[in-house]
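Researcher: Checking consistency across runs. Here is Transporter again:
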Amino acid sequence: MAATPRSSTSSDSFDSRGISPTDVFDPSAALILVPDTEDATAAAFDFSSDEEDPGQADLQVERVRNSSIPPLSSTSIYLYLLAPFLKLGALLIPSLDIPLRAAAPALLLFAALSVFTRHLWYMLARYVRRTDMEEIVLETFARGRGREGRRMALRHAVRLSVQIMRVSLAALYLRLSVDMLLAYFPNVLAVPSRLVTTIVLVALIAPVYSARTLASKSVVYASWISVGAYAAWFACTIYMYTRHIVEPIAYSSSLGKLWDGTPTFAFTFATSSTVPLYASLKGTTEPMTPKPRRSKSFKLLSLLSVILAVAFTLPLVFFEASAKVPRQELPSAELKATVAVFGSIALLFSVPSILITAPALPLPLPVRRATSLPVSKVLVYLATIGLALLPAHVTRIGSDLVLLLAFLSTYVAPALIHITIHNFRRPLSIVIPPTANTTSRPAEPSASDSRHDELLQRKERTMQRRRLGRRLIWDVAVWVLLVPVGGGGLVWAVQRMLGNW
């Protein structure tokens, strides 16, 4: 693929078109030797580019270490890659009225697309050598000098979209966790039960949200509790369906039209923070290590997380057929309450990790200096609580928008960026200039001068031809992801929300 081409002479330095600017290197060179710097990149985490000064690499490293996702262990990375899959989408699968012959292929399809899109982000991060999605977008649509205005506008747009997505998703999870418990709270108080339940739950997770980064032990433990609660909910659900006693009720009146169908599978395997997590994993590589251990392979961790998620979600699609079998007994109230509590915990304890990774609000400098309190975090938390308490008809529309944003950020954004950066942007590096002058050579070329090494040139061309087929396959796959899956899914979702389909 274009984003991760390799050769015997360079690492991560080839563009799919093999074109390069001639104003940087000697145009008479037949082959340009680019030193292999992948080991240094793995050790020092150098996210530099052709247009940066040497100090930019240190700035990138410092940015990773000071971000909300600092260098983490492989176990923590795996946790944060797996946890988003075992949330609301998975809890809703047993409530979907989809035939098994359609549900199982749809779930496996979106699981495969999740692996594919994560790999796209991974290769884009390596290609442009940036540590987060914001920087990748800037390198794609506003690269170079003299575009400060466009870069600033894009930066604010990306941060705003991520902020809206994080806060809305956290509010939806908080709302649904309250919905699952409302039936077990008395409604005889002067204050509405929803408000009381919401206050109790947000007070429970407030200490976890006070952590600054995902490396905090409280956030890690909360994420493990969320995954463990889903595993317990999954076990109870399996038990009830094997006994044909009840259909687990996770679907809520707070959800909109898009959630009762195949889009739920797309949301189940929606991903976020892929690039920061990859940067965090690379940031743990010890200096002078020639090659990361297999346990530090981001591609392996990503694949294993999806495989485990499929193992914990695929059995749920068989319950549609099981639900048609006559019930053998009625469920006990204790068993129903247990399922509701585990489902609520799975959603509730994922809220802190979602909000912690949200960008800070652009508050004026006097406001930030006036107090030592984290004003931005407090405002984000209050906004989340306020959104979770909105009326049901407003929440239905908001839930559809959340699903739509998750779909676009997971399946459309990486494909669009890949196509733009590899088809409409100038390549970052040089392999073989298309107009290389191989005739004007010195009488006695130096043995160390790679541009006069004909054997090396032939080897390079052979390797490029071998990679041509793979690059074409990847390009076709990305176009399929962008147009039929992304474009078609967007059109269908909009029409469904408008009530036309």
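Researcher: Does this match what you'd expect to see?
Model: One thing to look at in this run: Confidence is low (pLDDT under 50) at residues 1-55, 285-290, 436-441.
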